[in-house]
Design a protein that fits this description.
With 94 residues, the protein is mainly alpha-helical. Helices cover 76% and strands 0% of the residues. It contains four helices and no strands. The longest helix is centred in the last third of the chain and has 34 residues. The protein is extended, with a radius of gyration of 22 Å.
């Protein structure tokens, strides 16, 4: 039996991005994104609950309340980082 031939394909970053976008468009054309992302959204929500109560000692309502604030803080940090990056790009353009 002969050894399999290994073929190497070099794909640049732009092509990889285009392929990923194409795959996402096909996926969303065939399936409801609310259904395909249920598990991911649940895991994202659960991440904050574990962050605020790793031992699951708080009552459910309190854990969810704190998790919601942790989620808001997460998005606030993203917004601040985005604003900082936009400001830096604006100064580079000057």
């Amino acid at each position: 039996m002969s050894d399999p031939v290994l073929v190497s394909y070099e794909i640049d970053r732009d092509e990889m991005r285009q392929r990923g976008k194409l795959g996402a468009l096909v996926l969303h054309s065939r399936h409801d994104s609310r259904v395909t992302t249920v598990a991911a959204r649940e895991a994202f929500r659960k991440k904050f609950e574990i962050e605020v109560d790793p031992n699951l000692e708080l009552p459910e309502a309190e854990r969810q309340r704190r998790a919601e604030y942790a989620r808001k803080a997460y998005f606030q940090r993203l917004a601040m980082a985005s604003a900082k990056a936009r400001k830096a790009r604006a100064h580079q353009a000057d």
